Each structure stands twice: as C-alpha cells, then as structure tokens.
Amino acid sequence: MTYAISVSGLVKSFGQTRALDGLELNVHEGEVHGFLGPNGAGKSTSIRILLGLMRADAGQAQLLGGDPWADATELHRRLAYVPGDVTLWPNLSGGEVIDLLGRLRGGVDERRKTGLIDRFELDPRKKGRAYSKGNRQKVALVAALASDVELLILDEPTSGLDPLMEAVFRDCVAEEKARGRTVLLSSHILSEVEALCDRVSIIRAGRVVESGTLPELRHLTRTSVVAEVASSPYDLADLPGVHDLHISGTRVSCQVEPRHLDELFGRLTTLGLRGVTAAPPTLEDLFMRHYKTASNSSHERPAENAR
Amino acid sequence: MSALTGTGTLVRLVVRRDRLILPLWGLLAAVYPSAIARSTADLYPTAEALRGVAGTAMANPSQQAMRGPVFEASVGGLTAHTVGMSGAILLGLVSMLLVIRHSRVEEESGRRELVGAGVVGRHAPLTAVLAVVFTANLMIAVLMAGTLIGAGLPASGSFALALSLAATGWTFAAVGAVAAQLTESAAVARGIGLGVFIVCFLIRAVGDSSGSAWLSWVSPLGWTLRARAFAGERWWILALLVALAVVLAGAAYRLSARRDLAAGVLPARLGPATATPALDSAPALAWRLHRGQLAAWTAGFAAGGLALGGAVSGGIEAQLNAPQIMEMIARVGGENAEPADFFVNYLLSMLAWIIAAYGILSALRLRTEETAGRADLVLVTPTSRVRWALSHLFMAVVAPATALAALGAGTGLAYSASSGDPGKFPVVLGAALAYLPAVWVMTGIAVLLAGLLPRLSVAAWGIWVVFILLDVFGMLGQVDASVLNLIPFVHVPWVVLGQTAVAPLLLLTAIAAVLGVAGLAGLRRRDIA
C-alpha cells in the first residue's frame, strides 16, 4: 500500500521545548486520517513541517512521494490546506480570496466553487474584516475543497462552524474521500473524527502514542463493565486486567482489558449474574486516557508496539 | 424610561475612560496660544516689525492657504493668524474623534450592547459624550482666554479667539456625531469625519490663497477665522458656528433614532463576489495590498512638494540670517551656496527620511503578513517563498521611488515657478531621486531583519530613528565624522547645490542589493512563523 504521508523519527525543537520528539505518522493514499491530540501536543507543528513552512531538525518526512521542504513548490500543486485560525486580507472580499487562492493553485472550477459557496451559505461579497470567525473558516474551506488536489490537510477546520455547517463539512469530506482524495484531519471534535476517519493517530508531547483503525484502537482499550450479581463479590481485585473496581453491595463496576474479559465474566458467572452492561470504549475514553496522563509519558506504548 | 435616562452615569464613564487624555488635551489646547502670543511679542517688538511679518504672510499664497489672512498687524492679530487653523485642528479634530470613540467604536466593539441592556435611554450615550466634549471645549475656551489676557492681550479679542475655536470644536464634535451614525465601521466613520474636515480646510485654503473670499465663507473653518479676533470682533460668527453645531447634532439624533443598534444608516460596503481576472498571482495580490498606500503617499508628497517649493521664495535669505544657520549652510553646501537652494535641498533631505519610513513599512509587510498568518495561505500554494517575498519587495523598491519622484516633481515645479527659473525643475527632481539609493539601504536593512532575524524586525525602526538623530545633529556639527559616515543619507550629493558625486550612489545601491539578497536567503532557509 502506498502512503500519501510517511513520517518517521521527526524531531523539532523551539529553544528548550521539544515540540516533536520522534514523530511517526503514516497516512495511506485515499484514506481520511484523524490526527488527534491535546493542545500543544505538536499537531500544528507536524502539519507546518509537512507543508514545508518549517524544517525538521531530524527525521524523515515524505509527502506525495516528495520532500516537503525541498520540493515544496511542486508538492503544493497537489495539496490544499485549511488552517485552524484563518486570517484574511481585511480589504479583499471572501469571493476574491477564494478566486485568488484557486488561481494560485492553477485554476478554479467555477461550478464546484459556486456549489460549495451555496452549501456553506457563504456571502462571498463581504470584506475580510467583516467576517466572523466561522465565516473566515468557510472561505478557507471553500477555497480548499474547490481545488482539484490529491491531498487535503485540514487543521481543526470546523472550529467556529455551527452544527449545520459542520454537517455540510462532513458531507464534503465524505465526497472528497469517494473521489479518492486523501485527507489529513486534525480535530478535537471526536464525533467528527469517529464519523469521518478510516484511521486515527493520537499524538501527545510530540510523539504518536496510538495509531490504527478505530476498531483496532478500541481493542487496545478497556471495556467498562457494570454488573449486578447475586452474592456479594469480594475476590475480584486479584483478577488480571481489571481496573477501577468499585463494589457497592451486589453492584460491580470496573474497567477490563479486552483479553481478560473471559476471566472477569467467568468469575461474575460463578457469583450469579443478574444483570450486566458492557460498553466498548468510546473514542472519548480513549482520548481522555491519553490526554489525562500527559504527565507520565513513560508508561505509554509507542505506536509501533500497538499492532 | 425617558430617552435620556442614565446620561449622568455615562458622562462619568466617558470622563473616567479619558481621565488622562481629556486634561492633557485641554491643557495643551488652552495654553499654547498664550505661548505663541508671548513669543510673537518678543520676536517683533516694534510696530514696524509686526507690519513686516504681516506683509510677508499676506504676500505668500502658501501661508495664506495654511493659515488664512492676517486681519491686523498686531501681536493679537498675528497670534490669531498663527493659532487660528492649528487651534481649529486641535479642538475640532480631537472633539470629532472623541465623539466617534465614545459612540461608534463602542457600538462596533459590542460594549454598547452591554450598556444598552441596562437602564439607559436610547439617546443617553450620544448625549453623554456630546455633553462631555461640549463642556471640555467651553472650559478650554475660558482657560485659553484667561491665559491670553495674562499674556497682555485685550480681553475682548482673547475671548473672541478662544470662543471661536471652542465653537469650531462643537461644530466638528457634531460632525463626528453624524458620521458615527452613518456606518457600521468606526474606521469608516473616522474617515468620513476626517474627509469633511479636509474638504472644509481645502475650500478655505483655496478661498484665502486665491483671494476669492466668498469661497472661504462656504467653509465653517473660514468662519472660525472671520470672527476677526483682535481685529474688530464679529461676535455673530459665533452664533453661526453654534447654529451649525445644533443643526448637525439634531441630525445625528434623528439618524440615531431611525437605525438599529450597531447598524449604520449607510449599509456596509460589499466587495465583488468574484475576483477580477487580473488578481491571479502573488505579485497581483501585492499590488492590490500596496496600491492604496502608494496612491496616498505619492499624492501627499506631490502636494507637500508643491507647498514647500512655493514657500521657499527669494525672501528666504532675510529669515535665514541667523549665524548658526549660515554656518550650517556653509558646512553642508560650501561658501557660495544660495540659502534658498540650500533650504530646498535641506527639506528634501528631511522628507527623504519619511520616504525611507515608507520603504521600511512596505518591506516589513513581509513580516506583518507572516505574523498575521496570511502568508501561509499563499505559501501553501505553488508560490515559492522567494516569489512571494519578491512580490512585496518589488513594491517596497518601487513605492519609495514613486514617492521621491512625486516629491521632487512637486517641489521642482513650485520652486521653478516661485524663483522664475525653469532650470530648477530637473535639478530639484534629480536632487530628490538622488536619495533613492539611501532609501533603498533602509529598505534593505528591513528586509535583512525580516529575513534573517524576524523577531527583531521592529529594530529597523530603531535604526531609522537613530540615523535621523545622527543626521540632524551631524548637520549642526555635533557628531564625529566616523560615526556620521555610517548613515547612508550623509553620502547623498546635494544636487540643488551643484554636487554630483555618482560613486556613492552606486555603492549605496550595491549595499542595498546585498542586504536584500541576504534577507531573502535567510527567509528561504528559516521557519515561517
């Protein structure tokens, strides 16, 4: 399988701060890849390196088969980018910006452009200074989605959009995917990622800590189990892979690693199961686990061991 | 709840927010006329001297345009002549800006909504700021009249001058109130108010300098002067100004009652829905971003050159015969330098510093585009960094050249007309353009910083200020030659005085080019913020 983006061992420091610390990231051609992580984890730095705006201190990065720094101009013909915080020229109208950016990239497909402006309900005649944050974001989105490119790099593209527009955005990304385009989507909106992404990479403190399809990632994470049993449960704590165990009367709640589900349920059955709910981990659980443990990175498995 | 409920509270809010600006402005505006009066009395102690300077002022059209006529050759008459227009600017413009600051700016920022949701009448905010500004102008007038009388001027003239200026302040405060109702954008409101002021000034300037008095009567600023302080006061002029202020304020209230909060009477201007076919490249974008400034600077320097070249007439020797000035002329221009020629080239050398600022400003556009994040939008397209940078640098190279040419052409035209020597035109134009390589060096310094040391880009302004100070003190002979030689401007030949050294100009151009290339090389290699 070919990679649209392939990054290994990427390091980037700003003074004392190590923004990227051996980043590994692989994005397959034609997939929508979610790029998640807390603020300051290094998402935007990675994206800026991929766009050739910054140079990495060490490591390799390949983008559409080229070097993002050395071949920047050529590669930029084949990609479009939406920043998380769009600033526009105050005296240019939104329509002018969309046309200009399209022409800089080699041409505007008028029909696609008008269609997108309609769908996003954007007034292209307003001047840059008059747009709200969400509308500035729409200008950049229309410019990027209207362009005929192989790769879309979107850095929190829906910040400031209302839920209706977010739905339009999801439809658009799904269409882009159907057209065979690759999308790298950095986002905090988990439902968006869950709905759109084929694979996900979670980055923390400059490293990717999890990477894979959502089912794969779920498999790595604990299932939460709540059970009602007949007799008082007391000897559950010694079971392997059981965490966050709470027992009140005959009610048990805990988190269990997938490969130890057997042992837990075996024991619960001997106690006499009266009722049980088992919830697979949501992306949010997964996410929170990594976000919360930001301080003790040594316990985390690097991405490669996760397979 | 009446329309004025809450006015008192809002008055206190206005005063609290401007508790520093208001007293400073008031004190400055109130006291400086008496300083002018005292120095006029010192400089021209005899009736003959007063008649002489009044005659010069009346004979000089550019003085007439800037300050209007002298109605009487007395200390009071000359004080009124000197203070009339500058006072109108100080009271009128500041009053206007204050009104917009506390009305439209508040609405645009959304703070007015916070206030308007409280127990506040519809007209309370506008009334509050008008009350503060009207009162401030009145207090300034009383203090101004007192200090003028203290300087030994007649009481009635002192009050006429002070009250005519205060009434001008009221009038333009009311202009500000109307402008604030018209648009959603405070910047546009300021532009409208400023435009009205400039048109009033220009009508009066043309009327006074061409002798068409009826034109001056069309402009409220003409009225201000025609209160004739110290020259047979016309008190009814004050009533005219007050009446205009009342009519305008009334119009502002009517407009305010008819519109929604935060909306303007004029709809916000929309741009085109699609770009013109020409807007298709980084250079086209740079042209679009720079062209407004280019037009404004070019027009400004052409007009400034015309005024300056016209002001330097043959009579300048008489005014320049102070020993320090003659010594400076000899040091910079040689023993045989004509004072008028020297004066023209001296002014060019000073204005060239301002054009250098324009060059720096245009070059640092690279940095502002970068920090605002707008550079990213262009740089992630197939536009290379160098092409993007050159698109702005081309404007940073061409724009100061255009401004210098406009300055040289304006000054040269007016100077050749006032001196009756058409041969002055090419010489003055050449003298202005001779500053181009030095201006480019300043541009180059800005490019170098923006490219290599982006965080220190603002240091370009520090270097600019230091160089100006060294240049000014150098002309007075107070700076060591080895230090002076660091300043690019020192090496520019004074073409009006017959100097024609070409080698330094080539060297300066080469230095500018090296600085620019080094900056571009730095930009190519570094991270984009």
List the helices and strands and how they pair.
The complex is a heterodimer of chains A (307) and B (529).
Chain A: E1 3-14, E2 17-28, E3 32-36, H1 43-50, E4 58-63, H2 72-76, E5 79-82, H3 94-104, H4 110-119, H5 133-145, E6 151-155, H6 163-178, E7 182-186, H7 190-196, E8 199-204, E9 207-213, H8 214-220, E10 223-229, E11 242-248, E12 251-256, H9 261-271, E13 273-279, H10 283-292
Parallel strand pairs in A: 3-7, 3-8, 5-6, 6-7
Antiparallel strand pairs in A: 1-2, 1-4, 8-9, 10-12, 10-13, 11-12
Helix pairs in contact in A: 3-5, 4-5
Chain B: H1 7-17, H2 21-43, H3 47-59, H4 61-67, H5 75-102, H6 104-109, H7 111-116, H8 124-150, H9 155-182, H10 186-210, H11 213-218, H12 220-225, H13 236-258, H14 282-311, H15 316-319, H16 323-333, H17 339-363, H18 365-372, H19 374-379, H20 385-419, H21 424-433, H22 436-452, H23 459-475, H24 481-484, H25 503-525
Helix pairs in contact in B: 1-8, 2-5, 2-8, 4-10, 5-8, 5-9, 5-10, 8-9, 9-10, 9-13, 14-17, 14-20, 17-20, 17-22, 17-23, 20-21, 20-22, 22-23, 22-25
Sum this structure up briefly.
Chain A has 307 residues and is α/β, with parallel strands linked by helices.
The whole-number mean of residue pLDDT values of chain B reads: 88
Q: Major sheet of chain A: order of its strands?
A: 5-6-7-3-8-9
Rg of chain B (C-alpha, Å): 26 Å
Shape of chain B: globular
Order of helical and strand elements of chain B: HHHHHHHHHHHHHHHHHHHHHHHHH
The biggest sheet of chain B, with number of strands, parallel, antiparallel or mixed sense and barrel status, is: none
Distance N to C terminus of chain A: 17 Å
Helical proportion of chain B, percent range: over 70%
Query: What is the subunit organization of this protein?
Result: heterodimer
Low-confidence blocks of residues of chain A? 294-307
Note the overall shape of chain A.
elongated
Number of helices of chain A: 10
Task: Give the end-to-end Cα distance of chain B, rounded to a whole number of Å.
Answer: 54 Å
Low-confidence stretches of chain B: none
Strand content of chain A: 25-35%
The total of beta strands of chain A comes to 13
